[in-house]
Model the fold of this input.
Amino acid sequence: MRNILAIIEREMRAYFNSPIAYVVLTIFIFLSGFFFRLYLAQVMQMALMSQMQAQQFGPRPIDMPGMISRGFLSTLSVILLFLMPMLTMGLFSEEKKRGTIELLLTSPLTDLQVVLGKFLAAGTFFLLLLVSTFIPMAALYLYGSPASGPIVTAYLGLLLYGLSIVAIGLFISTLTENQIIAAVLSFGMIMVLWLVDAMANYADSPTSKGVLSYLSILSHLDDFMKGVLSTSNIVFYVSLMLVGLFLTYRSIDSLRWRG
Amino acid sequence: MITVENLTKRYATKTAIEAVSFQVEKGEILGFLGPNGAGKTTTMRIITGYMPASDGTVKVDGYDVFDNPIDVRRRIGYLPENPPLYLEMTVTGYLRFVAKIKGVLKNNIDAEVARVMERVSITDVKDRIIAKLSKGYKQRVGIAQSLLNDPPVLILDEPTIGLDPKQIHEVRQLVKDLAGQHTVVLSTHILPEVEQTCHRVIIIDRGKIVAVDTPQNLRLQLQGGERVSVEVQGPGPEILSTLKAMAGVVDVQKVAEDDGRHRYLVEGELRKDIRSDLARTIVQRGWGLYELQSTAMSLEDIFLKLTTAEAESETPNA
Done:
């Protein structure tokens, strides 16, 4: 555990010693704020219209904070899709390029500790991003009374989604010495997992249709956003994360053999 | 302290080292000498547990590298060919990180980091960013890193590469000072380095060990015999024939002639000192003896002889 903590600490320092942390944080906070404001404007306009309709047809209550939070939190998953590869691209590729991987792999650390340390470091930074969205969300609680259930499940969904993206990015960064290549490959990989259910509509057999739509990384978020916790969605993200971690672990092993 | 047996590493397309066996005693400095690409780095990487061998075993302090990798790594300080530095960190920050992953106890970290910085004289740059340091300082930070947690075995891959002569001297002195308490294996392709620092030398070429001995013995073995350079004043042809006729002399070559003084290279039989006989003969004849000097074959000559002899006898298979 101490070893893992040492690696997490070093990675966090590396993030904040380089521009990456600040760029990613700034862009994320700006974009999430932008979308929050956008949803707020949209929902307010809808409220205005429904008020006018209410004069003619009688009152119809709308859940303003709920609509805003649902739209806002769903959009976060898309912003994360673009930004997360920046957090994972250098985790192993930089170590390979600079030769520091040789230090890690000849220290009295197990490969598993190295992999988990890196994973949790990027995970911690991701958590920081999620926490930054508490600020606009707090505004909803300040001026309205949103139902907390769907918000909690939405955050849980985003957490699982983000960690599985981190695991994929971590694996891809073991494959190359070049950060840019790692970022582009991770982005492409996640994009494929994102768009795979669009292909499902054109699948020939019901089986392949089922498989394709099951693999979609975003569709599993829908239930979380609606406040529904289903085991199958949780299992999906946890499996994706474990596959990513396992591939990373194996990739490090193969790195040793190939030298 | 280190036992290497039958070590072989094959890659998909080539064999990096083949059936390499040797032992290193406690407190010894062993030099690994060979041209670039001979398999020095591969051997060291296997000993440190960075990569597994295709065949053969390595034991460090009784622990097998393959079966007990963590126990082995705990006992080894390793400086790879490129010092593994996180350039954006300060020297202290970096060494504290390495101390942590090497298992230095929390309360000892500050003292241990201060100790190794003192040992390699980098205390004056402790708060500097590593990227801003000179090559020599970076190398020393790399060595400091390997000394953390006081490992009994040090593996240094080309510790003096890229340093200026003064820094090279300092690093060699440091390595010498480390022997005794540490067992040191260092690799180099610079010959004076092993002559000056190592107790024993392994010459490796194309993945195979071609010689193992002390630098002194290697010289003796390979030289074929003692070589003496003499400068004599007198009748040239007569001197030559007289020297050739002497007992124990294998060969005499005239090297230079200047104003009646002749310089000869006299090769004697193996391990036979012919210097006093030479001097006596020349003086008895009444010739003038200006200089008499034993010229040992340098390790450089031996190295070339060993590695090129092999090249000639082997059909090249590219």
Q: What stands out?
A: The first helix of chain A runs from residue 2 to 17. Residues 2-258 of chain A form one domain.
